[in-house]
Write a structure and sequence with these properties.
The protein has about 240 residues and is α+β, with helices and mostly antiparallel strands. The chain has four domains: about 1-65, no CATH class; about 65-110, no CATH class; about 125-180, no CATH class; about 195-235, no CATH class. Helix content is about 35%, strand content about 20%. A three-stranded antiparallel β-sheet has the order 3-4-5, with no helix packed on it. A two-stranded parallel ribbon has the order 1-2. It has a two-stranded antiparallel ribbon with strand order 6-7. A hairpin with a 5-residue loop joins strand 4 and strand 5 (about 95-105). About 5% of the residues are buried. The model has no long low-confidence stretch (mean pLDDT about 90).
Length: about 240
């Protein structure tokens, strides 16, 4: 999580974050961290020093030094078997052999994200993103968002990337580009020639209207999670 995302967990209306202070090394160890990580650790330390709000019915428990081994249950998720871990001399986690059980009727995995690779485009395997300098991959090739920065940040951090790259694209266009190029219509024709179906802003508005129209009581929308569903909303 980014520090911003982590900090917002302290302002949830229904849940309190719970962190065990014993999971942290001495505070002076924080000095060696890069600024973003240090800020995140500071927020977690604040959570550890703040009792759970009794007025909030839910708790969000951060269970560090834990390795999920398996999910058990009778035809459905009922518990997770977890192994306690510790850090070795190189700072890597290793199992201790001690296991415990966490009741769980719903399990959501978060295993990370990597931008899909493209043939001929330089790629950063470790970062899960395209290699770029300020969003520029190469001649007439750019990246924004997580494809540029890796899986970190939200709309608030990725949106400025888009503005920056848009300015770079505009700067790189020939002076006569506004008059002698087909622009968006030319792009649509090219995509159609290649059998690629684009989704434009008008299409997005139709998708949004359909999601809002399908919302359950108390929910702002029912988000599509399958490509087939939003294609159906567009009549395709």
């Amino acid at each position: 999580m980014t520090p911003k995302e982590l900090g917002e967990l302290g302002h949830l209306e229904e849940a309190s974050p719970v962190v065990d202070a014993a999971d942290f090394p001495p505070m002076e160890a924080d000095d060696a961290l890069e600024p973003g990580h240090r800020k995140s650790i500071t927020i977690l330390r604040e959570f550890a020093g703040t009792p759970a709000d009794p007025a909030k019915p839910k708790r969000m428990v951060f269970d560090f030094f834990a390795k999920p081994l398996r999910i058990e249950g009778n035809g459905k998720a009922e518990r997770i078997i977890v192994e306690r871990t510790e850090l070795d001399e190189n700072g890597a986690a290793r199992g201790t052999g001690e296991t415990y059980e966490v009741p769980a009727s719903l399990v959501i995995t978060a295993i990370g994200y990597s931008t899909p690779q493209m043939a001929g485009v330089p790629y950063d395997e470790r970062g899960g993103k395209f290699r770029n300098e300020g969003g520029i991959i190469g001649d007439r090739l750019y990246a924004v968002g997580w494809a540029r920065r890796g899986p970190t940040g939200t709309i608030g951090t990725n949106r400025p990337d888009g503005y920056e790259v848009a300015e770079q694209v505009a700067t790189a266009m020939p002076a006569a580009a506004n008059s002698d190029r087909a622009g968006a219509e030319g792009l649509k024709r090219l995509l159609n020639e290649r059998g690629i179906m684009p989704t434009d802003y008008d299409d997005w508005r139709k998708i949004e209207e359909t999601e809002v129209g399908q919302a359950r009581p108390g929910s702002p929308r029912e988000k599509f999670v399958r490509v087939e569903d939003w294609l159906s909303a567009l009549g395709r």
